[in-house]
Structure formats: C-alpha cells, structure tokens
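## retry 2 of 3
previous attempt timed out at serialization; input unchanged, resubmitting
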Amino acid sequence: MHLSSLVIIFKLSLIGCRLLRIIMKTKTLRTMKQTKRGLLFKSEDIKVIFNEDTTNENYLQSHFIEGESSFNLLFLLSPNINLQASDCGTQFKFKKNQYILHYSSSESRAELWTENQEVLKYIQIQVNYQYIFDLIDPHSTIESAEILENMKNNNFIFLHKQTPPNMTVEMHMILKEILGYSKKGIMQKLFIEAKIIKLLILIFEQFNEKDIEEDLSKTPETIKKFLDENYHKNLKIEEISKIIGINQNKLRREFKEHYQTTIVNYISELRMLKAKKMIVNNRIMIKEIAIECGYEYVQNFTRAFKKKFGVSPEKLRLG
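## retry succeeded, writing output
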C-alpha cells in the first residue's frame, strides 16, 4: 500500500473519531439535566430553599425534606407538578402558581416529579413550630388559637373542593423580593422574617374570604331557619336584616331566588297553617290565635285567613 493511501486512511479515521465525539457530546447535551438548587436562607427557625431543574427529556424528579415539628410553605412555580408525601402516602397534582401550607409533626420526605415538562421549579419555606407558636401566641385570643389549630390540622392545604389555593400577585412579588435580596446577616434575617409574616397574613386572608363565601352560600337556609323559628313574632324586614346581619335587598333577593316566594308570603303561609290547626280547638279564642300567629290586630288576622282559605276563622270553626 502506498504511503499516500495510508495517510488518507489515517486522516479519515481521525475525522471519524471527531464525528463520533461530536455525536456523543450532542447526545449528552440533549439529555443533560441542569439543576439550580440553593439554600437561600437559614437560621435557627427558618429555611428558604429554591429549586429549578431543567431538561430536554420528558421527565424530571426532585424531593424536599420537611423537618420535625415544622410548617412548610411550598410554592409551585412550574406546570403540572406531582407530589407524593411519604408521611401520608397521598399524591397531589399541582398547576403552576399554586401553593400549600403543610404541618409535619415528624421529619418526612416528599417526592416531586413532572412529565412532559422541561422545568421543575419551586420554593420551599420551612418554619419551626415554636417560632409560629410564639408569633401567633394562641393564648392571647380565641382567633389566634383557632388559626394555630387550623395550621396544625392542615386546613390551609385546600381552598375549595380539594383544590389547592392559587398564589396571589402579592405573593409572587414577595417571592421575587426574597429571591432577589442580596444582603446577609441580621438585615437578611429581619427581611426574610417580615416577608414570611406577610405571606402568612395573605394566606389567612385568602382562606377567610373562602369561609365568608361559604357562609354566604348558606344565606337562604339561614333566613328560612330564622323564619321557621320566629314567624309568630311581629318582625319586620328591617329587624330580620339586622338580626341576621344581611342587607335588606340581599335578604329579599337571596330568599326569593332560592324558594321562589317572598319572605312576607312565606311568613304568612306559616302563620295560616298554624292558625288552621288551632281553629279546631274551641277552647282557644280567635283573638288568642291571632296573637299566637303574630298578628297584633284580630281584623288583620281575619282578613289574611279569609284570603288564604276563602272563609273566616269563625265560619271554619262552626263547620
């Protein structure tokens, strides 16, 4: 074989090796997982951890640790994150920009993963139980005791019908400030603690609004229950409104939409049904029946009774 041919073969083999290295490097880059995980802040009572995994594959996995007797705020910043909690064996699926506030009595590990996504991103804020206890001071007021009890019972996980709460704009801004804060030492400690307190206030407000909405959804039943128990009293709409604590217009509207009758007509119906039952008892005077059914004047009672049944109370009694 000529020397020139050997040189050509050698050069081709070098080119082949280079191509192979390029192919292998490209493949490695395509499947490479990049992780940005950092402890942003740590003190005796608080830890703030930021995690961001990226890949070109269709599967990402991570985990976080919940310390013993700790409250953990987990803010999910990328779409479709699955969470498997080892302490209860429950699996959740979160949308982007949802969060949970979870209490853990013992140290536990939770797995996070996502499928068909290129990013797995979240922030974990862990706060010791004693810090929250001292902050809320449950012995100071009933409200404080209820808040701490709700936190321990994990009542701040779901907002409506097993749906995790969504982060508000203010929550996003606070997290952005935490991520961007560069000072260290006591300034950072005070800053982080202030931001966590603000986050807790926003969470309590969000869940308080939920409770108000749930109470309002029961408004018609509340009105009906009150009327069923008090129809025999000489009550006006204004008085009912004040007692129940609902605006008069809302009171009328909510009741009519739910029961297809007005409050006045419903009270009248209850009174007339009771009066008809009492009429058959000859020992009770018509005047007494009128008063018992909420009528101050007998003539008003007689008029309403005749309108309802087509006959006066006296004639009905005589048969």
